[in-house]
Amino acid sequence: MLLAIDCGNTNIVFTLFQGDDACGEWRIETKPGRTSDEYLAWFSHLLSLTSYQLIHIDGCIIASVVPAVTDQLQRFAKTGLGQEALIIGDAGVELGISIDIDMPAQAGADRLVNAFAATKITDGPAIILDFGTATTFDLVRQGGIYAGGVIAPGIRLSAKALADAAARLPHIEIEPFGADMPIIGRDTNAAMRSGIFWGYTAMIEGIIRRIEQAEGQSHAIIATGGLASYFAPHMSQITDVVPSLTMQGLRAIYDLNMSTK
User: Fold this and answer.
1) Which of 98, 184, 202, 222 has the most CB atoms within 10 Å of its CB?
2) pLDDT on residue 217
């Protein structure tokens, strides 16, 4: 069995694979001070509630955008699972794509994993729209070439910053919204909801349009991240919603690297 770990700025997701099928998924808040022993105790307890055991895990792959956490996750894999984890970004780990940006070392591990996952969904060019701590747009050109992207503030982050910065503005819950939600708010709460939901919808549509204009062609638009399902119904440009895109990419990258050994 394979344990795939995606460490983001907000949460760490652990997904257990039996072959190509995900058979368990758990998440924990990202805290740089947490030790490998703490990860082991937490994960062991959750795994004990299933029919699986640590000894069933014979492979591990990690994508992390938080360097302070990466070492502890790697140690957790080695001491707790008895596995040398594949780390996205380490020398010798094949990603299955070409990276065509000015400073490849700056590319987030999750964004590269998503780019490879996108090549499994479409043979043509793609834009990956990831609703995470940041809202990111990643361009994958024909032939699996990662060509950079756009990083915008995340939706929850923007909503929180707005409420925190203005004493009289309330905190707005991020939740599914309907096409009948008015663009003009008749009170403060409604005006903020319109700005957050329709504002981000317009921003995303506009950035996708500008990328396609710059590239001179249309793209498959693949949405992922926790809020993808909220916004996708309101954006005709989105062709696929794949919540598990990063985990699918990690599974495929692991297989790619094992096939070359």
Assistant:
1) 222
2) 97
Residues with active-site annotation: 110
| Measured distance CA(70)–CA(36) in Å, rounded | 10
Largest distance between two CA atoms of the chain: 63
Strands of 95-204, DSSP E: 98-99, 126-131, 134-141, 145-153
Average pLDDT for 122-135: 95
Which residues have C-beta within 8 Å of that of residue 22, sequence separation ≥ 6? 15, 16, 244, 247
pLDDT, tens digit, 9 for 90 and up, residues 209-251: 999 999 999 999 999 998 999 999 999 999 999 999 999 999 9
Range of the domain at 69: 2-87
Q: What is the dihedral of CA 69, 73, 74, 79, to 10 degrees?
A: 140
Could you tell me how far CA 29 lies from the centroid of its own chain?
Answer: 15
- Is the dihedral angle over the CA atoms 181, 10, 101, 146 positive or is it negative? negative
User: Is 217:138 a contact under the CB 8 Å cutoff?
Assistant: no
What are phi and psi for residue 200, nearest 5 degrees? Answer: -70, -35
Is residue 261 scored above 80 in pLDDT? no
43 touches 26 (CB < 8 A): yes
76 and 198, same domain (yes or no): no
Q: Are residues 163 and 62 part of one domain?
A: no
CA distance 7 to 69: 8
Are 85 and 187 spatial neighbours (Cβ–Cβ below 8 Å)? no
What pLDDT sits at residue 158? 94
Same domain, 156 and 120: yes
163, 234: one domain? yes
The label of the residue with tokens 């992207």 reads 149
Looking at the predicted structure, is the pLDDT value of residue 154 above 80? yes
User: Residue 145 is encoded by which pair of tokens?
Assistant: 């070439």
